[in-house]
Backbone:
């Protein structure tokens, strides 16, 4: 009778690790379509943007010549690009604080349910319902020499302040900024109203019993509790203002008089489709992209620091 015993075969070293790796890879398979979509439609255009900026490319059907960093050197020495950068910074610096602070205060007021607050909330959607050409038509009438702005100035006796608003450099840019504030203030108020209505009412009621004034309730309660949402709205407004100003500039002033109202986003359009310099326009677009990225990081850092302090 045999006394031999069968020793169980040990799994080869590394087999459990490979099996675990295969299970993990199999688990990631459903994400492949989303990853492919992200690479194709999100990363791909950014890579293409940087590549096209290295080309001398006159039009879509023209031949392309690799010129390295020449387009970027030209942007740095371009007075028009510097003017566009300055105008974009002025537009952001003026409109963002007015929109965010004004919309938040107005949303707080609407959240108190004053008479007619439902009608006001409905009217606030008006800028969203107007297309950009329709918006430009309305405000070209407002800022025309015989338009509403000059009529109001005449009624209150300020005839000396009447002027062709869109035909002068400083007032043309101010008019474009005003239109952006008008439309941005409305939609931001709608978003802030929705956020403030979700805050616990008990906190505000307790503050009211303690004799806390409305400005203090806004500063000490509503703003800190909604700070993260304020950061989101600020980010959206920053992007809309920086990248969306081209249409208004094109329809109202075409960057004039001279180059007084050009912005970076308008300049990208103008060089690509107006002057047939696609490669150079993409170099400006790279600068716009970098400015946008810096702005997003700054906004994120600002609101994160404030959250940690609280």
Residues:
């Amino acid at each position: 009778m045999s006394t031999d015993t069968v020793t169980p075969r040990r799994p080869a070293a590394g087999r459990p690790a490979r099996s675990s790796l295969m299970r993990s890879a199999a688990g990631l398979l459903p994400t492949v379509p989303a990853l492919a979509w992200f690479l194709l439609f999100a990363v791909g255009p950014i890579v293409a943007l940087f590549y096209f900026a290295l080309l001398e490319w006159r039009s879509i059907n023209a031949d392309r010549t690799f010129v390295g960093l020449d387009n970027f050197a030209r942007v740095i020495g371009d007075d028009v690009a510097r003017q566009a950068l300055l105008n974009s910074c002025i537009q952001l610096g003026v409109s963002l604080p007015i929109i965010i602070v004004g919309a938040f205060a107005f949303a707080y007021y609407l959240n108190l349910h004053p008479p007619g607050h439902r009608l006001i909330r409905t009217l606030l959607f008006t800028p969203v319902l107007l297309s950009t050409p329709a918006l430009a038509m309305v405000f070209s009438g407002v800022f025309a020499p015989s338009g509403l702005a000059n009529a109001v100035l005449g009624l209150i006796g300020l005839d000396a302040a009447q002027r062709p608003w869109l035909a002068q450099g400083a007032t043309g840019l101010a008019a474009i900024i005003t239109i952006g504030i008008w439309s941005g203030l409305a939609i931001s108020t709608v978003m802030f109203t929705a956020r403030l209505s979700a805050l616990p009412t008990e906190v505000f009621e307790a503050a009211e019993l303690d004799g806390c004034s409305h400005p203090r309730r806004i500063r000490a309660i509503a703003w800190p509790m909604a700070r993260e949402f304020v950061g989101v709205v600020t980010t959206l407004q920053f992007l809309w203002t920086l990248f969306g100003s081209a249409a208004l500039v094109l329809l109202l002033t075409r960057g004039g008089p001279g180059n007084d109202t050009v912005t970076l986003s308008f300049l990208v359009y103008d060089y690509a489709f107006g002057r047939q310099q696609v490669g150079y326009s993409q170099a400006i677009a790279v600068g716009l992209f970098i400015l946008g990225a810096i702005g997003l990081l700054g906004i994120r850092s600002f609101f994160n620091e404030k959250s940690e302090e609280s």
User: Anything to note?
Assistant: The two ends are 82 Å apart (CA to CA). Residues 79-110 form the longest helix (32 residues).
